[in-house]
Amino acid sequence: MANHKSSLKRIRQDKKKTLHNRYYAKTMRNAVRKLRAITDKEEALKMYPTVQKMLDKLAKTKIIHKNKASNLKSGLCKHIAKLA
Q1: What pLDDT is stored for residue 34 in this prediction?
Q2: Could you tell me if 55 and 64 are in contact, meaning their C-beta atoms sit under 8 angstroms apart?
Q3: I need a surface site. Which of 7, 38, 64, 68 has the fewest CB within 10 A?
C-alpha cells in the first residue's frame, strides 16, 4: 500500500482513467465487430464513417495506438470492398 498522499491520489486517478479507457476501447471493438458482421454494402458504407471517426479519436487520445487504428481502418475498407 502506498504511503504518500500523492501516490494515493495517483492510484485513484489511474483507476478512473482505466475504467474510462476500457469503456471506450470496448465500445470501439463492438462497433468494429458490428461493421464486420454486416453483409449489405450500402449499410456498411453508411456505418464506416462513424467507426472511422471513433478509431481516429481513440488514436488521438492514445487509448489505442495510431497504427492499430490504421490497420483496423484498412481492414474494414477491404471488408467493405469485398461485399457485393
Answers
A1: 96
A2: yes
A3: 7
pLDDT in single tens digits along all 84 residues of the chain: 788 999 999 999 999 999 999 999 999 999 999 999 999 999 999 999 999 999 999 999 999 999 999 999 999 999 999 997
- For residues 34 and 26, the answer to whether their CB atoms sit within 8 Å is no
The 3-class SS string of 20-39 reads HHHHHHHHHHHHHHHHHHCC
* Type of residue numbered 82: K
With 0.90 as the threshold, say if the pTM is over it.
no
Helix (H) or strand (E) holding 53: helix 41-60
For the chain, the distance separating the N- and C-terminal CA atoms, rounded to the nearest angstrom, is 58
Residue 48 contacts residue 80 (beta carbons within 8 Å): yes
Q: How many residues would you count in the chain?
A: 84
Residues 77 and 52 sit within 8 Å (Cβ to Cβ): no
